[in-house]
Amino acid sequence: MLLLLAALTWLPGTLPLVGSKWPMVVIVVLLFPISIAALVRMFLSGPDRHSVWLAFRCLPGNLQAVLGALVVSGVVLMLLSSVDAGNLQAAEVKDGRYFVFDTTPHARGTIEVSHSRYLAVLESDQRSMLAIPGLILAGAAYVVFAAGELRRADVGFRSS
Q1: What is d(CA 55, CA 100) in angstroms, rounded to the nearest whole number?
Q2: In angstroms, what CA-CA distances link 113 with 13, 27, 92, 109?
Q3: Which three-class secondary structure state does DSSP give residue 51?
Q4: CA 34 to chain CA mean position, Å
Q5: Hey, how many other C-beta atoms are within 10 angstroms of the C-beta on 83?
């Protein structure tokens, strides 16, 4: 869902969630427990990297395709977002004027920009804030499914 919202930032206009802070709070509140639970589940199964890859390969092909598509789309969104914004980030409005933070080496600081450039930076920031957690959650899904497959294989091995 987060990757879909990140992709929607390329449509004309801005997403209705731009001004509110609660979506990011919900994302952060869900992101950390889900990611930590996935990693704990993987560590409890105790596999090496090769076993995790083999477990992923044993998953159904449709699930592999969906997880792969999520990771690839997350990476593409991140790359396009970083290329699109350049060195500008943190768009804000002060006294009716538009400012962004320029991260260019030897020229760091807040600069005034046009309204159109402000909107472009705002959308790029929003795209990154949605794509990064989406990519992390896709990775957590990969870990959970691979750990489940390893557990299923261990139970099958012990019962035979």
Answers
A1: 45
A2: 18, 29, 10, 13
A3: helix
A4: 13
A5: 9
Statement: residue 7 has pLDDT above 60: yes
Q: Residue 59: CA atoms inside 13 Å, Cβ hemisphere, count?
A: 24
Q: Which two tokens stand for residue 101?
A: 């933070």
The half-sphere exposure of 109 on its side-chain side, counting CA atoms within 13 A, is: 4
Could you tell me the two tokens for 7? 């992709």
pLDDT at residue 45, rounded to an integer: 72
What DSSP state is assigned to residue 160? -
Q: How far is CA 153 from CA 30, 58, 62, 74, 143, in A?
A: 29, 10, 20, 30, 15
Q: Judge contact between 7 and 77, C-beta under 8 A.
A: yes
Q: Give residue 85's pLDDT band: very low, low, confident or very high (50, 70, 90).
A: low
Q: Which amino acid is at 91?
A: A
pTM (predicted TM-score): 0.73
Whether the CB-CB separation of 34 and 137 falls below 8 Å is answered with: yes
Q: How many residues does the chain have?
A: 160
For the beta carbon of residue 52, count every other beta carbon within 10 angstroms.
18
Asked if residue 95 lies in contact with residue 148, where contact means CB atoms within 8 angstroms, the answer is no
Contact 78, 131 (CB under 8 A): yes
